[in-house]
């Protein structure tokens, strides 16, 4: 699959998966270890966290019980709220300390300290994006007690670091550094939200296409939804727009990728009791993210005064992002609110510390910081800010600067911390009130409660733009300013709809006649149409098993349309030169359009699909902008252009010109399929090509000793589905790099019947029993029970750990 479809949604939140590759050389020293030294496996096993028995910990006020079930989910029982979140931080660090430490360094802009000079620019950008506002307002925006929760969580992380001392997870030995104490500000990081807050990359892409191709072709290639004209804002010099604007903004040293961050995303749906076999709501959610080891998601159950919530979040943050409490279930998908704008600032030629504002000049604020660099001298950097926000690119020769206006500069926009209020909502009104505090990421949140109600609410900080739409960069001279934010109460919502069901899949959810602009770029309708097709079947009473099958549904929506066009092209051309294609087109015509891993037809279709953007567009797009088109053209865009062919893309002889493209591209795809899968079509299988390796970076071929590689190695898996199926599984080429690493199906009638999947396991430490124990379940589409009642948890618990206050420990020690 084309790299354009990778989920560049959270480039910094995925720092663990990106930056750890720079640590590989550190493990080379293992090959030179003395023969008498303990083996790497022995050292790794010795470093595993203590998960049973009793453990004295400084900072607790009362004992805390942690019950781990057979699947590694910790169920934490505390007598005070402070102790509860202290324990969450402690237990998360037990499972994921190395991942969390890389997250912390990425959040603080301190990667160059351990990875060297090539991370200096990344660190600089991270520091640019740091929240600089009032911390009292910041904490209060998430929940009245958010500060105490975050502080308790961080104290718990630090307590674990102090407890283990030098007995650190083996990853630290291989990487050559140690963790450092956390501060509460780590959890307030903004860089994690950069990729999910909007469309700066698409603004640049649209501007370049507008300049090179004109408005009609640019709209063909990156259409807006709803459709609006693509006109350069008054005062914008399109010649000033260059791809390098985003080089530091996205990530230093990484190729610039164009594309909406939410165009591959997540699914959620809920039905009320009239459509369920239980007579109560069922809610399903599968958020899609990069698939890695360890997983981004970490599951936990938090029980304490005012708390009884279970689900998945991220190990470096307190609370639960998707799950349920004793009354309410909730799940999310990203919604396409545009929360970023790029401003072209005119720099004063006489004073480079000023930019144009109206007819005069406004100051640039400058902060100076020092970045420590491993193996090199410290680097002094200047962090510059205009009234719009951080300066992400400068062009001194042309007296220009580019500034980013984004919601991350506002209080309350650290990703997912709004869950601290959401987790305690017990009614629909409380749910709505909690979501007034949820600003980032912008989400479709679904709701179900024990009283039988279901609901949907859009949450996220939504800028108001008057007289412009945010599709293109704008001049920074004061004419294009945000006019506040849409009140949370005015964002779309639904409660107990007449259809008895609600579903979202990152598609355009803007209600007809809705008065506010949210955004113009959404995921295709392929997934949502398939969900509604299944959920709207008359007479159905859905079960947990039905929802499990639907989360793994592999029917391809675009295959229905594209194969039909191919069949039509075969009929209309009638050319003898295409007669040899007939049996293969007939074979696809009989295919059920399901991209199962065992299907012989699917690889032929997928290889053809992969070739279509180039076949349709490349000859008619200048080479200078082809990389942009290649990265932004979606399956939906290609199907639209083929379904309604125009002379712009296929010449004047229509539909013959279109049919020539279809058949010639299919011929090449057929040859490529034989090349990849061999001469026996009966042996073709989609799973042969479509695999995910779950390769830990320390298991890469150049990661040092074979002993180290073997320690972290996980098996490659064959998968069905593709980037357009409900079971999303896509990536570069045919390697699966993103999809649903976590799934949940919540049964409001009996919480103990709820189920989940996660991959590859709860622990990031190799040799832990929970490093990869969930991998077989996930690979086979099976689930584990999401146990909730104390009775069931006690019966199923495999490990019991009691955290006790250390002798002489006081709250002041925290």
The coarse silhouette is globular
List low-pLDDT spans: 1-35, 252-263
The major beta sheet can be summarized as: 11 strands, mixed
Number of strands: 32
Query: Strand percentage, roughly?
Result: 15-25%
Secondary structure: helix percent: 25-40%
Draw up the topology in text.
Layout: H1 15-19, H2 40-46, E1 53-57, E2 64-68, E3 74-77, H3 81-108, H4 112-115, H5 120-128, H6 135-142, H7 146-164, H8 170-175, H9 200-213, H10 215-221, H11 247-250, E4 267-271, E5 282-286, E6 289-290, E7 298-304, E8 307-313, E9 322-324, E10 328-334, E11 340-348, E12 351-357, E13 360-363, E14 365-371, E15 379-386, E16 389-395, E17 400-406, H12 419-422, H13 428-435, E18 443-449, E19 454-459, E20 463-465, E21 474-475, E22 482-485, E23 493-495, E24 501-504, H14 526-535, H15 544-551, H16 557-573, H17 582-590, H18 601-617, H19 626-632, H20 635-643, H21 647-650, H22 656-677, H23 686-689, E25 691-692, H24 706-712, E26 717-718, E27 729-730, E28 738-739, E29 742-747, E30 755-758, H25 775-779, E31 784-785, H26 790-796, E32 799-805
Parallel strand pairs: 1-32, 3-7, 11-21
Antiparallel strand pairs: 2-3, 2-32, 4-5, 4-24, 5-29, 6-28, 7-8, 8-9, 9-10, 10-18, 11-12, 11-17, 12-13, 14-15, 15-16, 16-17, 18-19, 19-23, 20-22, 25-26, 27-28, 29-30, 30-31
Helix pairs in contact: 3-7, 9-10, 16-17, 16-20, 16-22, 18-20, 18-22
